[in-house]
Amino acid sequence: MSVVVEAVDVATPELVTALNGLLPQLSSNAQPLSLADLETLVHSPSTTLFVARNEDDVVGTLTLVVFPIPSGERAWIEDVVVDEGARGLGVGEALTRAALDVARSNGVRTVDLTSRPSREAANALYLKLGFERRETNVYRFLAGD
Ligand SMILES: CC(C)(COP(=O)(O)OP(=O)(O)OC[C@H]1O[C@@H](n2cnc3c(N)ncnc32)[C@H](O)[C@@H]1OP(=O)(O)O)[C@@H](O)C(=O)NCCC(=O)NCCS
User: Fold this and answer.
1) Which of the following CATH numbers is that of domain 3-128: 1.10.3720.10, 3.40.50.2000, 3.40.630.30, 3.90.1150.10?
2) How many angstroms separate the alpha carbon of residue 10 from the centre of ligand 1?
3) pTM, whole model, 2 decimals?
4) Distance in Å, CA 83 to ligand 1 centroid
């Protein structure tokens, strides 16, 4: 497999379809993305949406958010998923390395992410790439209706 990782700069219906095929493989609660949603995130200055392609097929995605706060420039990785048929071939690693390169080039101090312990492949991937497990509590406030 010859995988190329790219940062998306144009929202297309093809990408909407591809992402809507991938996101349910990350979470059964994933809501379908519209073209307008994709345009919003592609144009967000803090957000970089990466996709991995094998030939023309989108086989994985990852989103990096870089943001300044008083303690420095920080980054967060979210929505990492590789198509079931393309796992174990280096796609997740290539996506994560691409995100870390962009984070570094933005001068970030830290790159954070969360991953449930049951996600064995994901936890192994992040440890392999040098992420360190932190002892902290993760909280979420459900702000929607
Ligand atoms: C986690 C995920 C993105 C990994 O993507 P991938 O392309 O299959 O991973 P890679 O082939 O790049 O593997 C890189 C490293 O990850 C780890 N890894 C990958 N699959 C693994 C598995 N099934 N079991 C244990 N470790 C695994 C290994 O350390 C591997 O390095 P190695 O090949 O030198 O052993 C993919 O399994 C996935 O989409 N899972 C479902 C969604 C998910 O859990 N997303 C992460 C949310 S935090």
Assistant:
1) 3.40.630.30
2) 27
3) 0.98
4) 11
